[in-house]
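Late entry, written up from scratch paper. The run itself happened at the end of the previous shift, but nothing got recorded in the book at the time, so transcribing now.
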Amino acid sequence: MMPLDVCTPFDVDEKTAKDAMDRTYEWAVKSKNAWLVQSEKTQVTSGHVQPGQVPGHLFGIIQGNFFPHLRRQSAEQLVELDLPGYAIGGLSVGENPDLFDEICGLTASCIPLDRPRYVMGIGTPEYILSAVAHGIDMFDCVFPTRIARNAMVFTADGTINLRNEKYKLDQSGLDPECRCPSCTGYSRSYLRHLYKTKEILASMLATRHNLWFLETFVENIRKSINQNNFAAFKKAFLKRYMGRQNK
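Output as recorded:
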């Protein structure tokens, strides 16, 4: 459960960033009070929570734009509220990857290790890997479905644009290494035709593939963590994925 927050654009002054951070904190306090009241009203019968009365797990949203001291202040204030989890907001708003990595890492270091961590609004493999490296557990984004509507699909060698002329006669699957139904049942050439003729099936097939790709990607991340070789997995994945990006 997420309270209201104010997500500032990338290039704002410190006063604007602090005002947004303060308002976000005020909403978090009000949300916690309302959440506690609702939690007390929750009725449990025979071990089951009654429908419509689940209070959920309230997260605090850390803001502060790209000012390190504001990020720390926001995190400290929210951690004092002792919430079930914490979200990092206000990232992936136009900053370069190095700055994203820096602020994500700084903010994550302020969150207790025993609480789930969530970065809002990231959906590219490279940003997901960066977040996971800082101990982030969850993330969400419209990116994989949005790019699917615009003929862009993930592959192990980077994203490709199916509207490009070179895929006109390409009979290979979207990603030769993917086993999703979109890849095993349809060719790049056919999907390009669907996009060119404005068939809704094109977006449906590409969306299914992009979500499948990310699900498999995250499964592999989990495996690498369990096998204690995440750093090697990240390096190998990015070397290949970023090496042929947007072809």
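The mean pLDDT is 93.
(Scratch paper discarded after transcription.)
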